[in-house]
Design a protein that fits this description.
Layout (H helix, E strand, L loop, with lengths): L2 E3 H4 L3 H4 L12 E4 L4 E11 L5 E7 L8 E5 L4 E3 L4 E4 L4 H6 L11 H15 L44 H4 L3 H4 L133
Parallel strand pairs: 2-7
Antiparallel strand pairs: 1-3, 2-3, 3-4, 4-5, 6-7
Length: about 300
């Protein structure tokens, strides 16, 4: 049963599984039951044949400097809200005695058995974490070891006939215990998008027409009147009044029209926009899941911490 690293088998796993609500397993930190941080999850080993998780690869960081260890998936108690994994009964001293894991290590049956031998005593102990179930030690295989990290191998171990079902507490997770029951509801999400609904273009063009204008002008003309005096009295005229070449001059003027074209501002056009506000209402039927609890006998039921909602 070959084991492969999960991230190598699924390099694009964050986008491949399509569940936006799923929490990546490598975002969890690992804690002991006394709330002491052991390390953080870096990767996982999966069964290549069955595709099931078998181990979490835990980097102990400064707790046990520079050491990575394997944690059987059945020993992990997940707290999804806090993104923590708790391991019952695990101590620093016990981790120091676990076989180290390196990236280039070939995980064979003998190496796995040394890991299993270290965790079997813990798997046989009752769980002390709230909401977890104890494991009956009588159902676990005899290991011949009394302390974690012992190098001895199970006396009944047969590498060719071994099955992960044999160590149920190490490799099988209690789905009711670890997996939260998610209640979904549909919500109406109102968004706005800006779309172009029209366009107004304003331009200019030149039109030609014939314009008429009237300008009153004045013209002077000379009127010469000749009259014969009716007075019989003769004018007294001397000989010196008779002269040749005497001329009387009068200037004559007239107005001429001066018509020309000039450009003037006839009209101004201003362009602006106004926004009209209105509320658009939509109505849809949405669904919501509610919790149904079927109790038998007189079980202990915890109340919800949500105001107004209790069970």
């Amino acid at each position: 049963m070959a084991l492969v690293k999960f991230k190598e088998a699924y390099p694009d796993y964050r986008n491949s599984f399509g569940d936006s609500d799923a929490i990546p397993f490598d975002s969890f930190n690992v804690y002991s039951q006394n709330d002491e941080q052991i390390g953080s999850v870096k990767d996982a080993l999966i069964d290549e044949q069955e595709g099931r998780f078998r181990y979490l690869i835990v980097d102990t960081g400064f707790w046990v400097f520079g050491k990575k260890v394997l944690l059987p998936i059945g020993m992990a108690r997940f707290d999804y809200d806090a993104r923590r994994i708790y391991v019952d009964g695990l101590t620093k001293e016990q981790v120091e005695h676990l076989p180290a894991f390196t990236d280039d290590l070939k995980v064979d049956q003998d190496y796995e058995e040394s890991v299993r031998s270290g965790y079997r005593p813990l798997a046989a102990q009752p769980s002390t974490l709230p909401g977890t179930q104890s494991v009956d030690a009588s159902t676990q295989p005899l290991t011949g070891t009394s302390a974690i990290g012992a190098s001895a191998v199970d006396s009944t171990y047969d590498r060719d006939a071994y099955s992960y079902d044999r160590d149920h507490a190490l490799y099988n997770r209690n789905e009711i215990e670890d997996q939260p029951l998610r209640l979904y509801e549909e919500r109406l999400v109102a968004n706005k998008s800006r779309v172009k609904t029209g366009e107004v273009a304003i331009g200019k063009h030149v039109e030609t027409q014939t314009a008429r204008v009237s300008v009153p002008v004045e013209k002077e003309r000379v009127i010469i009147e000749r009259t014969t005096p009716t007075d019989a009295r003769a004018a007294v005229v001397g000989t010196h009044d008779f002269q040749d070449g005497e001329v009387a001059r009068m200037e004559v003027y007239e107005e001429t029209p001066d018509i020309r074209k000039e450009a003037v501002v006839r009209e101004e056009v201003q362009i602006r926009k106004e926004v009209d506000h209105e509320t658009v209402e939509a109505q849809e039927e949405i669904r919501r899941e509610e919790l149904d609890i079927d109790t038998q006998g007189r079980p202990i039921v915890e109340r919800s911490d949500r105001p107004g909602r209790s069970v």
